[in-house]
Amino acid sequence: MNRPDQTADDQPRRQAVLEALRGSDAPLGITELAEQLGIHPNTVRFHLDALVAQGLVDRRLEAPTGRGRPRTVHTPHPGMDRGGQRQYQLLAKILLAQLSTSPDAGSAAEAAGRSWGGYLVEHIPPSREPDALEATRRLNALMTDLGFAPEPDGSAAERIRLRRCPFLELAEEYSSTLCPLHLGLMRGALNEIRAPITATRLEPFAEPDACIVHLASTHKSGADTRDRRRHNRST
């Protein structure tokens, strides 16, 4: 059964229900809200259900003052309204613009990326070191989660094509800062999982539809590997 008054006016009416609760000195029930706003109680109930689900309104049972059933009442959830437009891109642009004024903005961005890459990557137990194939797979998984749509280059195992950039508009304007940050993410991730490879270079917009990541072996010596394994066993 369709609810009454299901029209394009849902959002203004839902906002009116919320504003009525915010303007009331006491909790309100469905009947009170319907009378105050001049709309059907089922319409009020529909919007209240949505507002409760969004975390904007709290619902509770109010103990009766005399004989009778407890009354269901509603109050606005305390705290700032979480509705409205977000401006995260503007925030990112402000931060990138500020970072770009650094004497060595690329290095600073790469270092920031390294720390976050180590935090975001799926970790491996310290007693085990991945081979190049597993390290590449884990790197691809991370970049997929971040929205880069990576795909191995069929012609060379040491290259990965990034088909998308989740920060494309910012990268077009701040590539000298944002791209080193992306390179740092990959380097930090590979370093965290003790990979035998590293990301040596990121070519922004190397192809019309992709950036290119270059990978290379870290060329660990046998002595270095044995020392690392002894350290892992002792920790």
UniProtKB/TrEMBL annotation:
Q: Which SUPFAM superfamilies match?
A: Winged helix' DNA-binding domain
Q: Which organism is it from?
A: Kribbella rubisoli
Q: Which InterPro entries match?
A: ArsR-like_HTH, WH-like_DNA-bd_sf, WH_DNA-bd_sf
Query: Which segments carry the region annotation Disordered?
Result: 63-83
Top-down, what is the taxonomic lineage of the species of origin? Bacteria, Bacillati, Actinomycetota, Actinomycetes, Propionibacteriales
Which Gene3D superfamilies is this protein grouped with? Winged helix-like DNA-binding domain superfamily/Winged helix DNA-binding domain
Any idea what this protein is called? ArsR family transcriptional regulator
Give the source's domain of life in one word. Bacteria
Spell out where the chain crosses the membrane. none
